[in-house]
Amino acid sequence: MNTEEMKKLVAKEALKYIEDDMIVGLGTGSTTAYFIKMLGKMIMNEELFDVYGLPTSYQARILALESGVPVVSLDEVDAIDIAVDGADEVDPHLNLIKGRGAALTMEKIIEYRAGTFLVLVDGSKLVEYLGQKMPVPIEVIPAAWRVIKEELEVFNATAELRMGVKKDGPVVTDNGNFILDAKFERIEDPLDLEIELNNIPGVVENGIFADIADIVLVGTKEGVKKLER
Ligand SMILES: O=C(CO)[C@H](O)[C@H](O)COP(=O)(O)O
């Protein structure tokens, strides 16, 4: 089984958590994209009723609308039943690094408030400690990017301003901000670092999601493995 097949497998498994009348936070990225398309099919086939998606990004919103998932915005809902999203790293305590897709701020706003936060990954995302493979994306106010990059040296982190691929200059997030990708040596206390980074003036949000995930579904060659906190 290749990585794409594993992503599809966990996306299919995630559908089992969706019931009629639910508000579902829709994550960003390639794994969640499979989930959104499959959810749309179920809604279109009348296998699910009165399910609304709450997108975490323009990517999720556009895909949901194309796939037949009706969308709502955060200020229209009283509660979020479940949120489904991918991750870039998952440690043994189910702390996460997210934000490769630069959607971390809206993802955290929605996933923090969801009744259940369900994470979908393939086995390559499991790490012994956060920061093992991936930098921590930090969304910053554009005017402050250079000073924050320097201030991150206090944490022994080296940060790079994320540059666009099909765009000249820096990536601009859905909220109009920049992203610094900060490589830390080893993140010993994710919750502490998450709070400390958000205390730097000019930081909007960072990609450490400590103590938020409830369930992680891991796609492996042997099938789906469920990890729970
Ligand atoms: O945090 C994210 C976007 O901001 C994604 O959920 C994360 O990067 C995982 O993406 P993929 O499923 O494509 O590997």
Automatic annotation (TrEMBL):
Gene Ontology BP term (one): pentose-phosphate shunt, non-oxidative branch
Catalytic activity: aldehydo-D-ribose 5-phosphate = D-ribulose 5-phosphate
Top-level EC class: isomerase
A GO CC term attached to the entry: cytosol
Database matches in Pfam families: Rib_5-P_isom_A
Gene: rpiA
Protein name: Ribose-5-phosphate isomerase A
Species assigned in the record: Thermococcus barophilus (strain DSM 11836 / MP)
InterPro entries per the UniProt record, alphabetical: NagB/RpiA_transferase-like, Ribose5P_isomerase_typA_subgr, Ribose5P_isomerase_type_A
Family as reported in the entry's similarity comment: Belongs to the ribose 5-phosphate isomerase family.
Function: Catalyzes the reversible conversion of ribose-5-phosphate to ribulose 5-phosphate.
Residues noted as binding substrate in the record, renumbered to the chain: T28, G29, S30, T31, D85, G86, A87, D88, K98, G99, R100, G101, K125
Self-association and partners: Homotetramer.
Active site residues according to the UniProt entry: E107 (proton acceptor)
